[in-house]
Amino acid sequence: MGYSEEFNAGMKKVIIEIGAYNKIFNDKKINDNTKVKVIFSLDSICEKCPNNENKNKCVTEEKVKELDLKVSNYFNIKEEIYCYNELEDMVFNTITEGIFGNICKNCSWYQSADCKSFIVEK
Fold it and tell me: What local confidence, expressed as pLDDT, does residue 24 receive?
């Protein structure tokens, strides 16, 4: 599926902003007890995405739900509040390249974003 130049430019901007977000997030020295609320719907990362219509619905909502379900199933994550270290143990310390590929292979950002290096090669 081909995307318009405007859409591609918007996605590139989002990817750059998320990269900056990840850098800021990683530089904050998160306390193991920092509380993180997991939700399976639009979240703060979705805020600037060009697929986010009117700040309340994703154009690719079914695809996003599929991704969330895979993550939930692989790591037994529920919509609730966790301590950061719990999530890190559940995901970052156990994810493999194979699991990452299975979860993310159909994501439109799979080839263009550098999620793999942030998540798998952490």
Answer: 47
DSSP annotation string for 61-112: HHHHHHHHHHHHHHHT--SSEEEHHHHIIIIITT--HHHHHHHHTT-TTTTT
- Please report, rounded to a whole number, the percentage of residues in the chain having pLDDT higher than 70: 66
| pLDDT greater than 50 at residue 28 | yes
Q: Which of 33, 49, 107, 34 is nearest to 119 (CA)?
A: 107
Q: What is the DSSP string of 2-63?
A: ---HHHHHHHHHHHHHHHHHHHHHHHT---TT-EEE--SS--TTGGG-TTEETTTEETTHHH
> Is this model's pTM higher than 0.85 or not?
no
